[in-house]
Amino acid sequence: MNSDSDLQIAGDILEVQHLLQPARPHPSTVAEFVGLARTIAADRARWAPLVRYDTTTRWYHRLQTGPGYEVWLLSWIPGQGSGLHDHGPSSGVLTVLEGELTERTEHGTHTLGAGAQRVFAPGYVHEVVNDALAPAVSLHVYYPGLTDMPMHATQCAQAALDAVPA
């Protein structure tokens, strides 16, 4: 029986540069998109100076694009909401950067504080609202880039919310 360890036989893989996977310049997996959102969220100096608050509509700014994806920065003053919608063929990552947002789905209502993240697939229906008393800021990553945001009827929204036990 051979008592040599795999490391003794093969050597340290980190010492053999040609065996290492090259770092990808752009994310391509759900985990990498979540990581991108976390990296941007942690870089407050990058996004905070761009934030604006608009009392008439939600403010938004496209922060970054890459092959097939977009990153958006949004602000929400108290009472502003998205309406019930999905994101067409896009998957996404929603990250709350500041404040607090409420997400309503057919499965319930969730309060999302700073640092909270939601990952969703195409066809995911939700409504996001700032029910708090202070403004909020969120970051949204869409893959592929957002081309469609179908709105859902208010009656459907109320029916979905009525179906959720209190």
SSE diagram, text form:
Blueprint: H1 6-10, H2 30-42, H3 44-47, E1 59-66, E2 69-76, E3 91-98, E4 100-105, E5 108-113, E6 117-120, E7 127-129, E8 136-143, H4 154-162
Antiparallel strand pairs: 1-2, 2-8, 3-6, 3-8, 4-5, 4-7
Structure description:
This protein has a five-stranded antiparallel sheet with strand order 1-2-8-3-6, with helices on one face. It is globular. The chain has 166 residues and is of the alpha+beta class. The protein contains four helices and eight strands, in the order H-H-H-E-E-E-E-E-E-E-E-H. The mean pLDDT is 86. The longest helix has 13 residues, at 30-42. Strand 1 and strand 2 (69-76) form a beta hairpin.
Radius of gyration over all CA atoms, rounded:
20 Å
Spatial gap, N to C terminus = 64 Å
Strand order of the largest sheet: 1-2-8-3-6
- Strand content range: 25-35%
Number of strands: 8
- Biggest beta-sheet profile: 5 strands, antiparallel
Structural class: alpha+beta
Report helical residue fraction. 10-25%
Number of helices: 4
Shape assignment: globular
What's the mean pLDDT score? 86
Order of helices and strands: HHHEEEEEEEEH
Low-pLDDT residue intervals, each spanning 5 or more residues: none
